[in-house]
Each structure stands twice: as structure tokens, then as C-alpha cells.
Amino acid sequence: MTSTSFNNGLVLFLSELRRSIRGLGLAVMVMTVVLFIGSSGLISVFQEHLHEKLYFFSVAGPFLAHVKIAFFGALYLLMPWIMYVLWKALGAPFGVRGKKLFWFVFATCLLFYAGTIFCYMVTLPLGVKFLLGFQSQELRPVISIGRFVNFVTIFVLAFGVIFELPVFMIFCAQVGVISRRTFEKNRRYAILVIAILAALLTPTPDVVNMALMGGPLYLLYEAGILVIRLLRLDEKRQERAKALALVGQNPEEGSPVSRPEQ
Q1: Any idea where this protein resides (predicted)?
Q2: Ramachandran angles phi, psi of 249, nearest 5°
Q3: Which tens digits make up the pLDDT trace of 203-241?
């Protein structure tokens, strides 16, 4: 491939990506406006596990809370489109197209929604109950609606993101960046990284929330290793490299190996 054709292909790819991002941004804006109309009902959904009244301490407080909830809802509902644009951009250089692109988008969305539902149904109620368990007759909660919305959205989105770990691991094994054996040999370091991520991503630094995030994350790490083994990604990559070597190609570049002229 000449440098001119490569540059033309890159320009075409970037222009398509820009159009996709522009269309996605417009869709997020429209969906935010639509959800803003019914954002009062969304606040009730957010408040379901709180069992406490919410207060605001500025004139714009309620309005900003409704905007945040509507924007969060737009991102949540449009996540399949977001993941499609993301994987189309990241996967194109590594040959992730067609069926591979479909399965990566499908798995990413499935795990994201599974993580957010798990957080909302299990982790969030336990975390809120634990934190409010420290109140007493002398200490009564006066919870700001803005901070509570931030708490819930960050917590839920963080769980959705960390549940993508198996997809990230499979992608790394697919392109040959990290092998399954590397994931298996570095479990102890993975546990340390998981603990650090749990401490950084949880909105509160208590041990309960960290455990509720770190525990599922480690199980997902093991699930990623299992899927890589079942799909035989390492073996397939080695077989592909051997096949390329037999036909006189460089397995890294996929181009014929130069031979000295006879």
C-alpha cells in the first residue's frame, strides 16, 4: 500500500467517523430534550432506594438535576449506537468488521446493561442503606438533589463500564496485544488493579461499596480468561502466524518477506 492510498483511506475513515459522531451528538441532544419532559418520573426512579426527601440549595438546583437525569437517560438508551461508533473506530484498524463488529457491539451493550441493572437492583440499595445507617437522632440526612443525582449516575455508569472487562480482554487477545497466559500469570496484579479501580470509581470510599464493585470485577476477569480459552484465540493467532510464515509472509505485517535475489 502506497503512502498516498493510505492517506486517502485515513482521510475517508476520519470523515466517516466525524459524520457518525455528529449524528450521534444530535441524537443525544434530541433524546435529552424528549426525556427532559418526563424527567420527574426519572427522579422517582432514582429516589426509589433512598426513602428520604431530597432538597435543593440553589435556585437552579431542580432544573439542573432534571437536565442531568435527562442527559443520563439519553446516553443510556443510545448506548448501542454509541458502542457501534466506538467499535467501528477502534476495531477498523484491527479487522473488526462484519460479524465480528456485530458481536463486539452486542457483547458490549449486553454487559453494560447487565452492569447497570446489577448496580441499580443490588449494589445501589445496599450502598445507600449502609451509608444512611450511620444516621442517628443527632444526625439526620439533608440530601441535595444535585449531589444525589451525581452519586447515582456515576455509580451506575461506573458499573456499566467495568462490566465491559471481558470484552476488553477478548479484544486484546484477538489482536495479539495480551495473551491468555499473560492474563492467567498476572492474577495477583489484576487483583491489585481491581482494588485500585474500585477505590477510584466508587463515589464513596467505604469498604462495602468497594467490595460490591471489586468482587464482580474479579469474576468478570476470570470470565474473560474462560471465554478466551473457549474461543481458542491464542491458538488461532499462532496458527495464522504459521500459515503466513509458510507462504513467505511476515506474520506481523502481513506482507511478503523480502528475499535476496538469486
Answers
A1: Cell membrane; Membrane
A2: -115, 155
A3: 566 677 778 778 888 999 999 999 888 887 666 666 666
Cα–Cα distance between 151 and 206 in angstroms, integer? 14
C-alpha span between 36 and 30 (Å, rounded) = 10
Q: What dihedral do alpha carbons 141, 143, 147, 148 form, nearest 10°?
A: 90
pTM, full prediction: 0.78
Query: What type of residue sits at position 261?
Result: E
Burial of residue 194, with CB atoms counted within 10 A of its CB: 0-12 exposed, 13-18 middle, 19 or more buried:
buried
Task: Report the distance separating Cα 111 and Cα 7, nearest Å.
Answer: 36
Q: Which residue has the cell 476520519?
A: 14
Q: How far is CA 233 from the centre of its chain?
A: 22
- Residue identified by cell 447515582 is 152
Burial class (CB in 10 A: 0-12, 13-18, 19+), 14: exposed
Cα gap 126→131, rounded to integer Å: 9
Amino acid at 20: S
